[in-house]
Structure formats: structure tokens, C-alpha cells
Amino acid sequence: YPDYILKIYRRDPAAIMPKKNHSSGVFDDAASDLFTHYRVILAPGERCLVDTGLSMIIPDNYWVKFHERSGLAAKHGVRVGAGVIDSGYTGPIKVVLHNTSHETVTIESGQAIAQFTIEKVRPVAFVEIDTENYIYECEKRQRGERGFGSSDSK
Predict the structure, then answer these.
(1) What is the CB-side half-sphere exposure of residue 101 using CA atoms within 13 A?
(2) What is the pLDDT of residues 103-126, one digit of tens each?
(3) What is the per-residue pLDDT for 21?
(4) Measured between alpha carbons, how far is 67 from 81 in angstroms, rounded to an integer?
(5) Position 128 pLDDT exceeds 60
(6) Cβ(54)–Cβ(32) under 8 Å?
């Protein structure tokens, strides 16, 4: 039995419902596919907002995150951007696609354009600390302030 029900409203009758590509009932894909219901042509370097024709009623205390489809990214350089939907949003589900390649990419109607996962919101509280506590907390961690590229220099 599912942990939650994701209610989908088809805003456009031609819109395609999300689906999991491999679902045996025991071992399911982690993400579900989202599809375009019209042809999308992306020029080199172009970004566009693709309307899926769907809306979602995301359960309270959950959120949806978009991910790239590995085939589109690896074969055609199409990346997904800006992909967080909170449970309070009930409007059209749109996906930002960016063609990072040097060639025009055509995505046909019915083709999967992105994947999404639904995740539980983890409550968090923000507490301001003073300098002394900050230094104390930093000293407990090995990495410290080493950031970009820090793991490459081992």
C-alpha cells in the first residue's frame, strides 16, 4: 500500500499522466516520469518552460523535486532546472528545460522530459549561535571550510 496518494488533475485533456517505468509492486523506480503532450524544439543554449498540462495536490508535509532524465541529459544535453514544488502550490506543473548542447533538440509529444520524486518535509528550526559556539561546532568537523574541489586534492 502506498505511503501517500498524489492526486493529479489533467488541466489539458491531451496531457499524459505520470508513470513509473519499472514497477513490479515490490521494487519500484525511485522517480516517476513526466511527459510533454506537444512537440518542444530547443535551440542550442535555449531554455524553455514546458507545461505538462497537469496539476498536483501534494499531500501536506511532502514536496516534489524534479530531476533530469539520464537519456536526455547524456545523449542530448538537456538539463532540468528549478524543480521544487511545495504542497501549497496547486497550479500548472511546468518543467524548465535547458539545452546545453550545440545542436537543436526536438522532443516529441509523448516523450518523457523529466522525473520527479516526492519527499517528506523534515521539520527544522533555525537557531542563531555566537562566535564561540560557531568555532566550537566547526572544530568538531574534519572538513571545516574546505569547499569547492577540496575532495580532489587528496
Answers:
(1) 16
(2) 999 999 999 999 999 999 998 999
(3) 75
(4) 8
(5) yes
(6) no
